[in-house]
Amino acid sequence: MTLRDVADAAGVSEMTVSRVLRNRGDVSDRTRERVFEAARALGYVPNKIAGALASNRVNLVGVVIPSLSNMVFPDVLHGIGAVLDDTPLQPVIGTSKYDRDREEKVIYEMLSWRPSGLIVAGLEHSEAARAMMRNAGVPVVEVMDVDGDPVAAAVGISHQAAGRAMASEIVARGYSRIGYLGSSSIADARAQKRYRGFKAGLSEAGLELADEIFYDGASGFGTGRGMTQALMERTSDLDFLYYNTDMNAAGGLLYCLEKGLDIPGEIGLAGFNSFEVLDGLPMRIATMDSRRDQIGRKAAELMVANELTTEVVRLEPEFLPGDTVRAKA
Questions:
Q1: How far is the C-alpha of 323 from the C-alpha of 212, rounded, in Å?
Q2: Among 23, 165, 210, 229, which residue is least crowded by beta carbons within 10 Å?
Q3: What is the spatial distance between Cα 34 and Cα 40, in angstroms, rounded to a whole number?
Q4: What distance in Å separates the CA atoms of residue 248 and residue 238, rounded to the nearest whole number?
């Protein structure tokens, strides 16, 4: 199927078909409609690679995230899609699996197709990846985090500030024997920043963590349950458990309920991210809304604006007390 076939079916020249499909030139609405109808009827798909040779750009936005299985990122992708749906731009997804070398390769492949923009999760990358993004010549936005040195534009929250804010909320509710349950992976830089911010917030209130425990691998109900049991058997007088993610907190909540503990009087719990899928639990877990959908939307808006910018957009996370913390005194 060629451009000539579409032109013959529409009764116009090949140049007119090219202008219509590339959205270039002065072509009447009636002619455009006739060309699109002919292309659809024939099943014609334009050669984007050939178009890219002329324009040095394709209507794709590369999106590089650590994982598709982590529940954090679908909300970001939803926000990106909600904005790009009304534009010619289409997102193309790649995953780094929290590995900087793999991320570097994914960014290389993405940019080799000359996309219209690039969205990458996080601020921590290899030097080669940073150099590629810096010299891409298209809008580049790092998302999820603003605690660091962005290559270009950045949209996210301060995870250190989020950790501090959680510590402040817990202390204000009278808890003092606090345990932390999180990931041992240093590759999850944002969780590590929240952990450091949380400890700093406790220190500012004259407190220290009573105990802490870390896991390898994936988060989830089973991980949270196992960590909670191990931590509470080791340190039985804890009155609060702070988890790096709601998924682990959900497992901890179910363990505490099974043991007949008074929540939030005897012990309180909190997580991070605010996952709607957990709304069906017996109690709503206290958490911090990390503004994932809004982050995706703002990043996509910067793609649509098509400007090379170093703008840093900091969104503020919102504490949601749910049912697992006491009211403030």
A1: 23
A2: 23
A3: 10
A4: 17
